[in-house]
Amino acid sequence: MERATMSINRSLPGGVGLFTGFTRLSKGLAAVLVIGYAMTQLFPSTVEYLALVPGKTIPFAWNLITAGYLEQSLFGLILSIIGLLFSGKLLEPIWGSREFLKFIAIVNIVTSISVFITTIFLYYITWKEIFLYTPLSGFHGVLSGFLVGVKQIMPDQEITILFVLKLRAKWLPSLLVLVSIIVSILATDSTSYLPFIIFGTYSSWLYLRFLQRKPETNLKGDPSDEFAFSTFFPEFMGPIVDAIAVICEKICCGGSQISSEEEGNDLGGIPLPGSDPVEASRRRERGARALEERLASAKASQTVKASDESPDDAAENV
User: Fold this and answer.
1) Does residue 316 form part of some domain?
2) How many structural domains does the chain have?
3) At a CB cut-off of 8 Å and minimum separation 6, what does 256 contact?
4) Residue 62 DSSP SS3
5) Residue 152 belongs to domain spanning
6) What is the annotated signal peptide range for this record (predicted)?
């Protein structure tokens, strides 16, 4: 277990091999973000067609997809690329490339639809056209979803932020939402980021909680108590949040819960995988093991490369 923890530490920012081991998929998606930003700089009018402009979404429905991959600022581009590369390095080996891409696509489209509905709702309340014709875009909704994935896989892993603050991974999504709310209050220009972050966080939790299928068990979701919605809030708010969450789950996911219970009964009353702390611990160990195997493979390839180069160096010395 200690070796697995050390492997996770090496894969996290600040560990050994910080800028190595990025996956092809994450690098390809980073290239898409760069191309999108370049288009906004070379052809500014493309923002009106690729960003989410709620007043034009009905004829230009594709902006519900393209808006999530379009960064309009250099700072946002750099932040998105860094977050994408390191998240892909951590999550893709555990989920697999197909599931990693599926997660990004689902979180992106659900976040965009939620932002669209929210802006239309705000327009009909305030009658301010700024809600209809302000171009909204950015990858930050998916980035917030990545933090939820990290929370699920390694909730108790300690991460150092800004080389000073040490925080457990399970609090990263909540901290991001809290900081975004505070910043949006102090700086009105940043309010366009807040809906993406909130809906990105919530939609990613919904997907991981109820829909993501685990290949090792062929079951959907993660019903463990450690990944309940109340874990995003301080402990004293847990009972209140749990009471509200139970009602929402019965309304939105009642059918899936019934089918899961039936599967549990068919197994003779055996708890479903992931429904107890033991299974949650096993899941984290599997994730750590996957990271350890990936790092060992990378180290082995570097050793083979070095051994292949040594004869040439010896010949040059002769």
Assistant:
1) no
2) 1
3) 210, 220, 221
4) coil
5) 2-292
6) none
- CA 120, CA 132: separation in Å to the nearest integer? 7
Cβ atoms of 140 and 71 closer than 8 Å: no
Question: Do 145 and 209 touch, CB atoms closer than 8 A?
Answer: no
CATH number for 244: 1.20.1540.10
Q: Which amino acid is at 140?
A: H
CA distances from 52 to 56, 112, 231, 234, 291 (A): 8, 8, 31, 34, 36
- Give average pLDDT by consecutive 10-residue segment, the chain, 318 residues: 42 52 93 96 93 92 95 94 94 94 97 95 92 93 96 88 80 92 78 89 94 80 89 87 76 51 42 47 61 65 56 46
Give the residue ranges of DSSP H helices in the chain: 2-11, 24-42, 47-50, 63-66, 74-95, 97-126, 130-133, 140-153, 172-186, 193-206, 238-266, 277-317
304 falls within a domain: no
- Per DSSP, the residues of 225-285 read GGGSGGGGS-GGGHHHHHHHHHHHHHHHHHHHHHHHHHHHHHTTSPPPTTSSHHHHHHHHH
Residue 244, domain member (yes or no): yes
Instruction: Report how far residue 8's alpha carbon sits from residue 5's, in angstroms, rounded to the nearest whole number.
Output: 5
Reported pTM: 0.77
Both tokens of 149, joined, read 């994935």
